[in-house]
Design a protein that fits this description.
6-stranded antiparallel β-sheet, 285 residues, 7 helices, alpha+beta
Length: 285
């Protein structure tokens, strides 16, 4: 793991670079993705290289993210990611969960069943294998010998709704999801496509239901839901009713870039969750 460097994204004489407080220049424009410049010019940010290579320059890709104060309180953050308009598999949106700084992601693609740092989940640049295909604008494998997974920073791809819960046993909850990842990694290969998770099922082994069942195993027995947004609202409702927990709700608006269309929120399927959502929204104002 590379140590992060800190500086300010600066523009001088039509040249862009990252500058330390001492004035030392540490990154130049060809190492800074346009999306970062668009949103964080003149802001203090952290940066570090990734193992992946920029297909156009042949150089290491640098990930850059906002400088934020870390909190020591154990927490979980449940994410409801709005749907990506260009993928039918994203029709209902997506869930992921952050346990004290480790984000667990589950998917029908084997490679996307992983635990990630927040900066990689939210802020990876749309470069190299993280970018959409320049030909189709979507996921593409072995296009002119290159892979385009179209999996750059989720906050550049979508608006993300967040339920934050403090007062949990983060070690126990992390173990539950790490065990789930081990089950997936050790599962038998898919008979038709080795890139897919063989046991994935929308109704009982999806991004939503794996997280839901992990929360139930932890002790949140009342959480319910199959659809990502419904599950998010119902979990927020359940957690808000537990007096020992501190809950809050907020939204991370999409950081619009040329590589991604605006995301779209999905409708609530269960009518009861509509009324829960209205009450939760009222309580959070």
């Amino acid at each position: 793991m590379y140590k992060a460097i800190t500086g300010i994204i600066t523009t001088e004489d039509n040249t862009i670079f990252l500058k330390k407080a001492s004035g030392e220049i540490i990154l130049h424009s060809d190492q800074i993705w346009d999306g970062y410049i668009e949103h964080w010019e003149n802001c203090t940010v952290h940066a570090r290289p990734l193992p992946q290579i920029d297909w156009d320059t042949g150089k290491s890709i640098y990930i850059i993210w906002p400088a934020e104060k870390k909190k020591d309180t154990p927490f979980l953050e449940l994410y409801y990611n709005e749907r990506l308009v260009k993928y039918w598999a994203s029709t209902f949106g997506h869930n992921a969960i952050n346990i004290s700084g480790n984000i667990f992601n589950f998917s029908h693609y084997m490679i996307e069943n992983e635990v990630m740092t927040p900066e990689e989940y939210f802020y990876r640049p749309a470069l190299g294998e993280f970018a959409p295909s320049p030909t189709t604008g979507k996921f593409a494998l072995n296009e002119n010998g290159r892979n385009y997974y179209d999996k750059f920073g989720r906050n550049f791809m979508r608006t993300i709704h967040v339920l934050r819960v403090e007062g949990i046993d983060d070690k126990l909850l992390s173990k539950i999801y790490r065990d789930e990842l081990e089950v997936i990694k050790n599962s038998e290969p898919h008979p038709k496509n080795s890139k897919l998770y063989k046991d994935f099922s929308f109704f009982n082994r999806s991004c939503t239901t794996i997280i839901r069942d992990g929360l139930r195993k932890y002790g949140f027995n009342k959480v319910r839901g199959i659809f990502p947004r419904d599950f998010f609202v119902h979990t927020a409702w359940v957690c808000s009713e537990i007096k020992e927990l501190k809950t809050s709700f907020f939204t991370l608006p999409q950081l619009l870039v040329k590589e991604a269309s605006p995301s779209v929120s999905t409708p609530l399927i269960n009518p009861c969750n509509y009324f829960r959502f209205r009450k939760l929204a009222y309580q959070s104002t």
